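Risk register update: the risk that structure generation would not scale has been downgraded. Supporting records follow, first protein first.
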Amino acid sequence: MIPVPYRSIINGGLKPGKSFTVRGVVNTNPHRIFFNLRHIFGIAFHYNPRFDQNKVVCNTWDGHWGPEEYPAGMPFKAGQPFEIYIFCTDHSFNVFVNGVHVCSFKHRFWSLNEIDVFEVAGDVQINHVDA
């Protein structure tokens, strides 16, 4: 078991082609989970399953939250195992949950090399991280 909140340093900063995989189990009575790619000024990509609202919210934060984006559906289920895979391209972050593409979020923060922290927090247990 990996302690939550989880945080890892991205050596040399983010580059297109870099990916992150997290395997774990959603808690039985979840409220929210947070998957963040951070930089010194804020969060370049915030992927936020919200069980209390039965939706996922994607956003950025640079002193204030940007406009929220809502990918269709809720790919996580309370008490169930999951695998999330986040892949960085030249133009976006692509998210796959349990092998299904669930989201493409266009970059709003373009200095990818300054994105240097990956974190996971919230109502989840983590078994494996490849970051």
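Supporting record for the second protein:
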Amino acid sequence: MSLSMATSPHTTLFRTRTTRFNPTSIKCTQDRVFNFAAGPATLPENVLLRAQSELYTWRASGMSIMEMSHRGKDFLSIIQKAESDLRALLQIPPEYSVLFLQGGATTQFAALPLNLLPSGGAADYVVTGSWSDKAVKEAKKFCKPNVIWSGKPEKYTKLPSFDDLEQNKDSGYLHICANETIHGVEFKDYPVSKSGVLVADMSSNFCSKPVDVSKFGVIYAGAQKNVGPSGVTIVIIKKDLIGEAQPITPVMLEYKIHDENHSLYNTPPCYGIYMCGLVFEDLLEQGGLEEVERKNRAKAQILYTAIDGSKGFYKCPVEKSVRSLMNVPFTLERTELEAEFIKEAAKEKMVQLKGHRSVGGMRASIYNAMPLPGVQKLVAFMKDFQAKHA
């Protein structure tokens, strides 16, 4: 092969592609939409831009995070900072471990009974929507789940009074879903487990507000709603609950294995963990979760006020006291207009407003990264749409 090929058009193209990227040249483009998807969901724009600037080469490593060893010092610094910042955000006590896992929150439906209960053990479940119902169905394969309350008769539009929860004395834990993504009901406070172990799926309101971690034995969450891209599952677990897994527990589901290996037993979702770390850093810079909750309350109030003030043109089926700050389901009085509503909203660069297939209607997911102007634009559109069709 002739050395003259070094000057071929292909080589010129290669050189163009590998020109050093200048982060200061990044500009926000105008083709971004307001993404109301339930997950994977919108991410903070400044986080995306920073990730873009560090995509090709992370700091002085000479490589992308997607290329580096998960056991090297560079990635170790990334995952350790992500954990440190998350601990600061949630004020996680030292007697809790933080695990960065894979498989989504759905995998934890099986991991929980396998790790927390003996073979044939029992646990109590509160079913407030589709996700807690799925948790029960999966748990049936590995334990005896007792459904001590279900919102199904009311179509998952309310939450129980804690006094109505008749917990079983032989229960190993009490399981709740802190926020039901599909049905839009959210716990504003949390029941006390008689077993001493409260377990919560916080996938869709994780890091949206302060939480007293000490009230829980286990908190678990898929990252793709509030804190990162899909592929990362975060488990916060009290250390004294680790180490008693059933013998049949697959190695990848055993908390002790991941805890002893600092979430590095096998190759973790490295880039996703890096992205979560950027989000944690951003939330701290905003002033922490108290400030984040204040912003989320303001956004939700604007949207719920518009729905409730529409004289029935829009309706939210959820009991007001337990309405989610994250996922706002609503319907149109004239259901035949729903498809047009979604189509017209998309033309205005507001997307993913169609409700879950199991409940229909619309759903606006207004997670941490949904900016206030996005909610304001949606409300303005809703009022214009009502004026046109009322």
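DSSP finds ten helices and twelve strands in the chain. On this basis the risk owner (M.S.) recommends closing the item.
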